[in-house]
Each structure stands twice: as C-alpha cells, then as structure tokens.
Amino acid sequence: MLRNSCKALRNSFSSNTWRAASNHGPRQPLPSIEKRLEKAHPQFTERSQLKYARRLVVKLGSAVITREDNHGLALGRLASIVEQVAECHLEGREVIMVTSGAVAFGKQKLAQELLMSLSMRETLNPKDSKEFDGATLEPRAAAAVGQSGLMSLYDAMFAQYGVKIAQVLVTKPDFYNEETRNNLFSTLSELISLNIVPIINTNDAVSPPMFIRDDEPAGGARKGIPIKDNDSLSAMLAAEVQADLLILMSDVDGIYNKPPWEDGAKLMHTYTSDDINSIEFGKKSKVGTGGMDSKVKAATWALDRGVSVVICNGMQEKAIKTIVGGRKVGTFFTEATESTNTIPVEVMAENARTGSRQMQALSPAERALAVNNLADLLVSREKFILEANAKDLEEAQRSGLAKPLLSRLSLNSAKLKNLSIGLRQIADDSHKNVGRVLRRTRLADGLELKQVTVPIGVLLVIFESRPDSLPQVAALAMASANGLLLKGGKEAAHSNKALMELVKEALNSVGAEHAVSLVSTREEISDLLAMENHIDLIIPRGSSELVRNIQEQSLHIPVLGHAEGVCHVYVDKDADLGKALHIARDAKCDYPAACNAMETLLIHEDLMSGQIFNDVCNMLKREGVKIYAGPRLNQQLTFGPPAAKSLRHEYGALECCIEIVPSLEEAINHIHTYGSGHTDVIVTENDATAQRFLNSVDSACVFHNASSRFADGFRFGLGAEVGISTARIHARGPVGVEGLLTTKWILNGQDHAAADFVEGGTRTWLHQQLPID
Length: 773
What we know:
This protein is α/β, with parallel strands linked by helices.
C-alpha cells in the first residue's frame, strides 16, 4: 500500500513537477522553487507525523562516516546507515543521499601507497628517509582516488538488500548554469522514477569547497541558498525535490543552546525560528566544512520552503529509522510554536526532581496534610470528577472499548469514597516513611553511622484505562516525597485531567505544586523510557502487553511491575466444599479483569469422584464463566469443555482453565511451570499441607483459605499501591510507600581519618550496634 501510494506520488511528481526533457525535443525550463512550493504537501508540525514522510533527503556529514584519525571510513557505522536507508527504500519511501567521505577514503588508500613508496626509498637510500605525515596529502588527489572506491563500497553494501544506486557528482557550475541545474534535477527525477537511490557528492577532485553567492534580485526575493558545504547543498536539494523530510546527520545529538561541552548546555528537542537568539554556536566540525551554525541556517532555509528537518547524531544506533518512526531523536525544526500552557516533558521531569527535594524538606505532618487534602477533594469534588469521567465513558462506548476496559475506566461515588479512605491510610502512615532510621552503628569512639530511608527520586508511572490509579499513585508519591510523572491512557483523558487538577491543588497547599505532573502531550512512551537522566524508576500499570513492551524497551531505567497475572487456586483433597466454592467464585468473578483474579483452578484428582468437582463447575457456569479444560482433565472427560490452548494464559475476563493434579507436589510444580509468580492460593483444612504449600510456592503472594483478590495494597492495609511486583529485588507483591523508598548512609564523626585505624594507629574499631530510637 505504501509502495503504491509512493508510486502514484512519484508519477505525479515526475510528470507535473520536474518536466524531464524528452529525447525528441528541448528540455522544458524547471519552474522556480517558489512556484513548485504552491503544490507542496502540508508541512509536518509534530514528530509523530514524520512516519508519513515519503521523500527523504539524508545528509551524512564527514564526522559521521569518517574514522577519528580522518584516514578511512567508519565501516560499521556506514553499514548501519546503509541498512536503514535500504529499509526505508524497501518500505516504499524515496531516499536521496548526500554523502561526504571521498577525501577520507582516498587518504587511506594514498597513505598506504605512500608508505610503501617511502619504505622502498628508505631501503635504497636510508639517508633520505623522512617521517610520513598523512596530513600533507593533497585533498583533491585524495578525492579523486576515493570517489570510485566510496561508490564501489556503497554499491556493495546496498546490493545486500537488492537496492540499486547511482552516483551524481556536482560542482559549482551545476548551480550557476540554469541548463545544468535543470539537467541535475531532471536526472534525479528519472533515477527516483526507476526506483534507484541517488547518492550525491561534490566533485572535490576538480572543485574547491563550493560557495555560491546568494544573489538578491530586485525586490529582495531570494533565489537560492549560499552553497558552501553539504548542509546547504542538502537543503537546496530537499527544497528543489519537494522532500518531506531532510535529515542532517552530524557527530552531535542535535542543537544545543550553547556548545555541548560547556556547563549548562541543553539539547533543544524542538527548534523554531524564534530560538535563533537563544543559541550560542561553537567551532565548526574538525572534519567537514560546516559547523553547527551552518546546519541551523540550512535547516531553517529548508523549513521556510516546506521541508521538515531533523538534525541528529549519525552515530546513534538506528537514528534514521527512529526519526521516521516519530521518536524524539535530535532536534526537530518546526514552525508550529508550542502552546504557552504546554511544558516540555524534560522540564516536567526537572520540576519533579526539584519538587521531590521540596517534599523531603517538609515535615511528616505537612506531607500528611497534602495527602489528606487530596482525600477531602475526592469527596467534595465528586460531581466535577464524575462529569469528566462520563465524557470518557461516552467516547469509549462510541469507539467500542472492550467491557473489561470499560469497567476499569468507570468511576462512581463508591469508588471515590474508597479512594478517599485509602488515601487517609496513606496519610496516617506517612509520618514514619522518609528519614526513618533503620540501623545505627558506633564504628569507633565519636564515629556513628546511620542508615535512613529516602525517596527513590523521580518516578514514571504509565497506566491504562484506570483513572483511579492517578490519585492513589500521587498520594503514595507525596507520602514518600518522590517526584512523579504520570502518563495515562488517552481513553481516560478527561478523568485524568480533572483528577490532576485536584492533585495540584493539594500539592499547592504545601508549596510543592510541580512535584507531580501529568504528561498529556503526544510524547511517545519510548521517548519517556529513554530519559534515564531524569527518571529513576518506571512503574507500568496495565495490560500484560503494555508491561512487557515497557520492560523490553527500557534499557537504562529499572522497571517495577509484572507482565502477567496468571493466578491459581488449588483445591486440595482435604478442602471444605463450601469454602472452596466461596473462594473460587470470588477469585474469578469479583473482578475478572484484575491482575489478581484466578485464571486456573487446580483440583486434586481424588475429588473427581465426589460432589465438589461438579458443584464448582456448575457454580462457575451460573456466574457466566467460560471454562477450558487442561490436558489431564480433557483426557478424563468424554464430553466436556474445550481444551485450553495454553496453561499459561491471563484471560482477564469471565473465562478460566480447570486442571486436575494427582498430588500437592504436582500442584506446586504446575504453579511453578505455568504461573507468573503473582498470587497463588490453597484451599484445605489440612494445616500441614497448607504450610508446605505456603513455604514451597515461590510467588509474591501465597494464601491459605483466602481469595487471590486480597493481593491488593488497600486490602493489605498499605492505603494504596503503585502496582504489584513479581521481581525478586527491591519490592515484591503489592507495592505501597515502602517500595518507593531506598536508603542512604549518614556518618557523623569528629576528626576521623581512615589512616587512624591502621595497625598501630591512634584509633580502634568498635562496630557496636546501637538501639534505634
């Protein structure tokens, strides 16, 4: 489909715009840039739109593809870029490359020849030997030697993907002369129509670095851009061919407000023409002919002519594909100014860090006050919240949102009151959270060490379809003095916005309004996961697919959570029938979409001949539960429920699997094989059997004669939870305030030095454990 759309675009482009010359008649004059722009596409104003770019110009700077010694190419990096360009081409996009590298490649080859020649002269006449200096090589000669080799290399690399290329060498006269200028762009048009990737480089063998004056005709209308490097050359090409996107690849991450090596330098993810006065430029590239100021001028020139531009670090892995995917890489040039009310997410994260420190400086009573204020607002502003929630529900029903997700999305008076009660529990417990002394040790006379609790820092909580998560998580962050970024699902946008207003109001009462923020921009989750300098912990709350994707994508920020909730209830041979029915019904039917709902019911095989098996099945059927049979059960039944496709499956609905096991040991083995380590239950009247189950099952929560639905922060008395973790370090099970704290060590001494404790020194170790106040 993409290929067809591009083909149609290409046909339209070739016939209507470029007017390639016929073999039987004179070439038609090429319309001016300004004339052609009348037919150009609407310019992209957001990164997310870049995935729709069809025609790309990719400029590879010298620093990107050249080795640090300037002799030869960085082949691994170049191969990665070629792979990305080939992928874009095979997807149906049209790509034009502007490349440097001929001089560097030529220097490498000439250096080898000169070294061999020098070695021969030294052998014949040692007195005439001179030290070889590669820097003395003539650049034009190096370019002449390197151009053919560079294109042979490109040809071999692209051939691996079945992509044809063509070299287009340009010099200064090609842009001075109207005829050669038209010929150039007609050639490019023809190559693209033949599904060939044009690779453009300057003919440095015969021409010095290009510089074309920017002629100002009468009236001040600008005809072109001064072409003095590959940046400006790429900008002109992109404008001439009406490219959707120009990618300028350099050796820096993008545009900084000042040279990136200076203190206070910040990467500008978005650049508009208004930002020019806020930038301080450094020196130009050590390898190429252009500096960052040249790139900005070229980018803004192209932007003025309808071309979207990104300046990025070409050394970053998969930079081209990441940009085309709409991700936040490099600096995106746009004329769309952000709303004055929109705060960049990086600023939100910095504010959250500052807000966390402000919360730490508050007394426990002040932190508790903020949480209690939020609890009050949930009740007093009920109408305001439910009106916003009604808008979300209406839109969700119209869009056909699944029933389990609708249930999670829905708020009501009872939910808000329970939320308020839970928040008050958090407030009551917050007095002993931050700054609690866990250990005191007298290391030596006058030298005392303390281990105390402190907040983790800045949390990112990503949640789907559950607006009630927002006040819960915000209250836990307040109580633990953590900064917090919240990213909610778009289906709960109105509810989240309303609840966030109440959170801000509660925080404002203690002067820490910016400690918690809702990321409501079109920020891609993958971009948030790359903010390791701003975010300390990620907590996903949602579907197993969401959690798994975040765990896979977050390479540098730890993720706390669980991907699946495959919970089991095991009915032992010594189980009480009434208890088993009551627990199984609650575990499956109370809230089937919850992660702590039962997904597999294990029944001891001795019960198959009695009444309990039939009663359990009949009860589940009455509740509307669709039953699937495990392999053992399926073998014993002539007519029964359909076979389960998998024993490790989270249904999240009124569906479950029933399987029989011959013993307690087999039940435990089944749970370890197919469970997710979330919550598992035994129903039995045999205390010894129960104890063996509780000790042996390696899950975050293990219960005896109690529903799996008790695996919840509120029910555990934690007030609320940020999620349930099946990890084995830091926090496990329902995670309340305790899971959002870490520790630091505080040492109080007098004039102590480590050298005082060496053998024969003036001080000795005591390592005496002290009572905790």
